[in-house]
Specification:
The complex is a heterodimer.
Chain A lengths: L1 E5 L8 H14 L3 E5 L11 E6 L3 H13 L2 E5 L5 H8 L5 H24 L6 H4 L8 H6 E6 L2 H9 L6 E3 L21 E6 L8 H14 L3 E6 L9 H7 L7 E4 L4 H10 L2 E4 L10 H9 L3 E4 L2 H4 L6 E4 L5 H14 L1 H16 L4 H36 L6 H13 L4
Parallel strand pairs in A: 1-2, 1-3, 3-4, 4-5, 5-6, 7-8, 7-10, 8-9, 10-11, 11-12
Chain B lengths: L1 E8 L6 H15 L3 E8 L7 H11 L4 E2 L2 E2 L2 E6 L10 E7 L19 H19 L3 E4 L2 H11 L4 E2 L18 E4 L9 H9 L5 E4 L5 H10 L6 E5 L3 H10 L2 E3 L10 H7 L4 E4 L5 H4 L6 E4 L3 H13 L1 H15 L4 H8 L2
Parallel strand pairs in B: 1-2, 1-5, 5-6, 6-7, 7-8, 9-10, 9-12, 10-11, 12-13, 13-14
Antiparallel strand pairs in B: 3-4
Classes of the chains: A alpha/beta, B alpha/beta.
Chain lengths: 414, 341
Amino acid sequence: MRVAYYSPQPPERSGIADYSALLLPALAERIDVDVVRRRSRRRRRADVSLYHIGNDPEAHGWIVEALRRRPGIVVLHDFVLHHLVAGMTLGRGDGGGYLDAMQREAGPVGRMLAHGVIDELLPPLWEDRANDYPLAGEVLASSSGLIVHSRYVERLVRDSGYRGPVWRIPHPAWPPPAEIAPAGLPEGRTIIGCYGHLNPAKRLPQLLEAYALLRRRVPEALLLLVGSLSPGLELDPVYDRLGLRAGEDVIRLDYVDEARLWALLSACEVCVNLRYPTMGETSGIVVRALSLGRPLVASDVGWFAELPDEAAVKVPVGEGEVPAIADALELLVRDHELRTRMADAARSLAQGEHRLDRVAEAYVAALEEAAGGAVVRAAVLGEVARAAEETGLSANGDALSDVAERLREVGPGR
Amino acid sequence: MRIAVCAPQVPFVRGGAEIVSERLVDELRQREHELELVTLPFKWYPGERVLTQAFLWRLLDLEEADGAPIDLVIATKFPSYVVRHPNKIVWLLHQFRQAYELDGTELGQFDESPEGRALRRSVHRLDKLALGEARKLFATSANVADRLERSTGLEAEVLPHPPQELPYRCDEYGDFILSVGRIDRAKRVELLIDALDADASLRCVVAGDGPERDRLEQLARERGLNGRATFAGRVSKQELADLYARCLAVYYAPVDEDFGMVPYEAFLAEKPVVTTTDAGGPLEVVGDRKTGLVCEPTATAVAQAFVWLRDHPNQTREWGRAGQRAAEQLTWDAAIDRLLA
C-alpha cells in the first residue's frame, strides 16, 4: 500500500513535525510512504493520503489546501481549528472566507460575529472564544476518516455530527536517549519542570502562584520553565507580585534542542503540564516525561484528563486550582515512594499503549481499512441490499434500520 | 439452563471443531441442561463473503426462542462468536486465521490489494467488538490465547477441550505411522510423505479426507511409495480406534496449529506423538522425550524420529503411557465446571 504523507517536518519547530519525525521511520518499515513536501506540485499516485492537521496556519495551511484537492485521512491533532481557519482567511486578506466559515459554523449569528471581528468591533474570537467556534467543519467534511488521540476528541467529532470512520490511536512515545547529558542545574534543589511553548493556555500565573505557596513549605524547591514565551506574556510582574526571584527561585530557559530538552526533563522530580483552554491537543512533552518516568501534574481537561491516575495527578481548572496545584506538587515532592510508583506506571504506559511499533501498527491498520474500505463496503452492502430487496424489505421500513445497525457493527456499514 | 451452542459449519466438511461442538452439546445435555446446537453454513470466499457471513450471525436473535429466554450462548469459532447475546461465553477454538498469522503465507486468503488489506482489517475490528462483548473468554490452548492477546489485546483463560470419545486401547506398537485429520495444506501431511521418501523402512496410514488428498496420493505414487503410504480416507470411530491401537506412533505436525485433538487421542491409545518445532498448539501437549519427540520440520528429522521410536520400544511404550496419564486428566466434568462457573 502506498500512502501520500502530508505533515510539517523538522527543522520546523512544531510538535507535529517532531511527531512525524518519530512516526515516519516506523511507518516506512511497514508500508510505502511518500512524504509530500510543502510547495510540491507533483501529483501523487497513492492508495490513500494522510494529512496531519493542527491549529497553526503557518505549519498546516498548505496541508489543508492539499486536503481540499484530494480528500483523505486526517490526523486531527487539535479539534479547535479557529486559529488555523482565521490564518488561512483573514491572515491572507480573505475576509469573505472567514465570514463563510463562521456562517457554516454558527449561521447568521456566526456571520455577524465575524463581521464584528473584521470591523474590529469585537476582540478576535480565536483569542478567548475559539472553543465556542472550533471551525473544524471544513476539515471534517473533507476527511474520509479521522485519526484522533483521545476519547475527548473522538466525542467532540461525533458530537459535531461527523459520521465517517474514526480511529483512536495513542500519541507515539519517544524512547529516551541512551545517554543523557547532565542538565547543569543548581545542586541540592528539588526541581519542578514546566516545558514547551509558554502561552496563556499553560496557566503560568496559576502555576507561579501555586509554586509561591509551595516555596513556603518546601524552600529547596526550584521551578524550571523551558520554552519560548508567547508574545505579550510578561512574567516579571508576576514574579514581583509573588516575591519570586528570577534565576534563584525560577529559572527560565528559551527554546532548547532535543538533547538539551531530555537533559532538562531528566533533571526534574516532577513535571507540570497545565492547560486551559484545550484545543483537543496532546502534549509531546508529557509523552516524553512518561517515557522518562517523570511523575506528572496536569490539568483535568481533554486528553490530559485521560492520563491514568497512577501516572498523573490531575488538578481542576478554575476554582481551587492554585491550592490544588500546590498540594499536588507538595505531595509528590515529599513522597518518594509515590514518585517511584508513578514513575513505574508512567514508563509502563509509554512502553505499552504509546509504544512506537504498536502505534505504527495501528496507523497501518487504519490506513489499510481506509484505502480499500469503500470497495469492501460496496461489495458487502450490495449483496445485503440485493437480499433485502428480494426479501421485500423496503428502504423506509423499520426492519431495515435493525439491518443497518447490525451492518454498522460488522463494519462495512460505517 | 437453556443454552445455545453456536458453531459455523462448512457443508460436507467435518473436522475437530464439529466434533467438539457436538460433544459439548451432548455433555451439557447429560447434565440436565436444555441444549441446542445453532449453526449456519460458512463460506469465506470471495473475500467480502467473510463479512456477509459474519453479518448473518449478527442478525440472529438468540435472546429467546419460542417465548422462553435462552439463558446462555456458547460460541466456538469465527464467525459464530459475532452473535449477540447478553450472556455470551466464547470458547475459542480459533479466530479466522487467514486474517492473522496465516496472512502473507501460502495459506493466507487476503491479497495485497487495498480491498484485500481492508477486508483483513475489518475482520480484526469485528473480532475486537464481538470477542470483547463476551462475558467470559476461554481459549482452547495457550497458542490460541496468545494469538488472541496479540491481535486484540483481549485475555482468555486457557481451557483445552477433551478428545473425542472412542474405544481407545493399545494392542501393539506395530509397523506403521498413523496420521489422523483433515488432509489440507495446513495439516502438512506432505511432510510425512517426504519422510517416507527419505527412509524406505517406514510405512504410514493416513486416515482422513480433504482437498489435498488426491494430490498427496499422486505424490506418493510418483515417489514410488506404493504399499508404504496408505490413504484410508474417512474411517469410522471403530476403525480409528483400531488404527490407534495398532500403530507404532502418531504423526501430527500442522503449521502453527491451534490445539489439535490428535495428540490426546494418540495418548489415550498409549502411543507417543512426533511433532515439529513449528507446530504451535501441539507443543503444549507433546513433551519432547516425555510423551513423544519434537523435531525440526524436515523430512529427514521426521523420518529419524520414527526410526528412533521403532528402534527403542521400551521408551516408545513408556512415553505413550505417560501421555495416557496426561490425557486422562482432561475431562468434560472439569471443562464444563469452568465454562459454567
